[in-house]
Amino acid sequence: MIPMPKPDLVTVNIDGREIAVPKGTNVIEAARLVNVDVPHYCYHPKLSVSGNCRMCLIEMGLPSVDPATKAPIIDPASGRQKINWIPRPQIGCGTNVSPGLHIRTTSPMVKEAREGVMEFLLINHPLDCPICDQAGECKLQEQATAYGRGYSRFVEQKNVKPKRTQLGPRVMLDDERCILCSRCIRFSKEIAKDDVLGFIDRGSYSTLTCYPGRPLANNYSLNTVDICPVGALTSTDFRFKMRVWFLKQTNSIDLESSVGANTVVWSREGVIYRITPRRNDTVNDTWMADSGRVLFKQVAAPDRLTAVQVNGGDSALDHAINAAHELFKTSAGAIAVVGSGRSSVEEQFLTKQLATALKASVQLVSRVGEGDQLLVSADRNPNVRGALVTGLISTLPARQLTDLTVAIDAGQVKTVISVGEDLTAAGLTAAHLAKVAIVYLGTHANATSAAAKIVFPTQTVFEKSGTFVNQQFRLQKFSKAIPGVAGATDDLCLLAKLATVAGRSLVAGDLANVWQALAAAVPVFGQVTFANIPETGLLLDCTPFAVLPFVEGETLHYKPAAATA
Amino acid sequence: MPAPEQRRIIFKHIDESGYSNDLACYLKHGGYEVLKQAVTRPPQALIDEVKRSGLRGRGGAGFPCGVKWGLVDRRSGKPIYLIVNADESEPGTFKDRYLIHQDPHQLIEGTMISCFANNVTQAYIYIRGEFPHGARILGKAIAEARAANFVGPNILGTGYSCEIHIHRGAGAYICGEETGLIESLEGKRAYPRIKPPYFPAVLGLYQCPTIVNNVETLCHVKHIAEIGGEAFARIGTANNTGTRIFCVSGHVQRPGCYEFPTGTITMGQLLNEVCGGPLPGRKFKAVIPGGSSAKVLRFGERFKGRRKVGADLVDFDWGVEDLPMDFDSLALIGTMGGSGGVIVMDDSVNMVEALANINAFYAHESCGQCTPCREGSLWMKKLTTRMVHGPARAEDAALLKDVADQIPGRTICAFGEACAWPTQSFLAKFGDEFKNHHETKQVPKPTATAALV
Contacts of residue B194 in chain A, CB cutoff 8 Å? Predict the structure, then answer.
């Protein structure tokens, strides 16, 4: 362990409790450390401070010193240094801690200020909670309950604004609900670097809108929906689908690239309704790409594989395993395994067991796209590093399976086991496929599954638990959000069965036991078990792989080795 | 006591017959002589003169100009900008426009002296969007001054260069707030910045140290450079030095701009003698002494207390007529000298209607950035508008006060105070009118058409 440098600490007093916090912390964050809630709307820890909602007003005081001698002035009543309380409330978000700062968050002045701001925010708010998607996770609801007066004195006409403005393909705006906190504007400008949002008109008639002719269409637009503290910005995909309090939250990992953004999968009764980012300050902060939020749709996709097949006909699992066993025997010595950078660490480990038992060569297919320098990296496989760590591969995967095509053409390979990879996308032609017997383990139909001799339907990332190793060599776990579809078999179970028939002495097919084996076989995992991996991930030693030419460019919280050197 | 004579420094030549706003006329009256002399002095000497003069800002807050200049971060290595705040939008104030129209070169000379003193090489005149004529006049005047080498590169052969640009606003009151003005000048929405950290003296225009001064303030700088800080400080009263221009409007016989040594004239003298008193058959009812944001005063009320005169504490007992028209006295009784816009209302005015008018202005001009002002100003407008034009309720007065009390001190900029003070003071001073409004108000009966009866 490298000892963390000690940050400069500053002692502050929050509601009578002393706490040491790092210099540069603002009052909201400092209060959070002592479990004191300072309500706020516009402040967001990952955005610039705007200070416009005025909800975080607190009472602030500084220790008084003699102006001439700088000696502390002692209050004779308490025997402690006198505090000069500022007569006006101050914003917590825009105030950084200073030594000896005193804060009151429960004084009458603060209470009154909060009640005032709450009342102002609600007078022109439509209060259409019964039909609002934000209901249940709405800061306006929560803070009105906690800090508001509970009744309205407003008898005038409310302002009328546009109720449904399509800001972009994925984001819908209800201007009447908007409290003009400007979080979405700041996000677009500062994080997404796509400055398309702004206010028009003035005062209470201010209206959020896009610049003329510029839709909010960037791949991060749905983060504005996440950070909108009220129901003004809603996702066109999730809108009116489900009340959020019915939804179960499961921690997961975005598998669209090697960034491994931390996510939450929201599901009810086996159906996923949405995916949102989960805060991890070392990986994705509080953001994720829009493209990763629709991946759950693959669960119920029409091309989902739901039946075990042998020679094109439906089959029982045991029968198919036996058929695979026969195939392994007849083509012994001429088997190739195509692993996947989309498989979990555990699956890759079992794939290696299988390949070792069959004395088969192993290759991975690379997926390289353009990185967006934020949260989609160039490597679109979430777990190439997992394959390196488990020893499934020792070099980076190539885009084309050239070695395999050469071997097939030379007649050296008779059987190919593909773990979820479409071989035609990796350079194999239909002629190649026709020359070999294919065992396909995968979730969705494609040219390879159509040509396969044996097809084992498997589960998507939402239906199983496991781990990925992201581009930082951070081991991150994802959990099962929903039960698998009927007909699909758990990947680990399946790989274990295949490895067993291939000749490995009984291989475990459940997560806990696989991890026991993993920890024993892979030194870097040491004492790791699936249960003790922290929710924010576990950084692994990457020095053995430092020489490899990884394809990723710079993204949020990641600099390629070449760039850091 | 008869009113003192006007002492016109800023308005010295304005209104003289034959005085025009071109350079030739200005030079004939001794124009730019002060600049010629100032650029030969060390800049710090000029800053010291302004500090010694005790000049207080004429834009509204009355902040000492020398202190403002002293706060400028001169060690950052960044350029220092000077902005002339000509966004004169406070209702009841019309001195800067008059100055720009009648004597633009005086402003340019004062600006150039201030620029030289603060080592500014780039100045901006932010002029209100509603002053197109003023912008044209200033544009012409700057071109003339540049041709005569008073503005531009190598001014008067000294090696010092300074440019002045005119920037026209787009019609928003909030652009008079200095950080809002800076945002607007940068091309953004005029949302005032949060202070701290964005104090203009440190992080102003383009995040550089910036001085923002009112038109009248900069004109005073010219006269301070001419007669010296001490001599200037002898005009007016202690801590309220120099002359002050009062823009009297409303129900008086002779409204207009009047310039007096600060604090030497009382409200009564100004309104009754200088402005000729109330209109025939009317009586003064109320006066707002410093632009519409200042708290209103009711004729007939008394202000008692003690105040500092020199080193002594002196009792005072003033009626509205006795109020000395200076920053400190007006602040002492809970209102402010503000921008010098004196708005007079006589007994023909219904105070609820007057407040509805003021509230409509502030609701229209609130920038909408922070919650209390954005929502509060419009709520107050809707309330008072309903009281005037719709069904008034007995509880409206109390509610109106509560709403106004929730605004000041909780906003990003001083607009919160500006929009709440009128309501607070109208209710404090004319509470009965508001409380009884639902009974006393004259609702015009719908006139029945004879043909329908």
Answer: 49-51, 91, 94
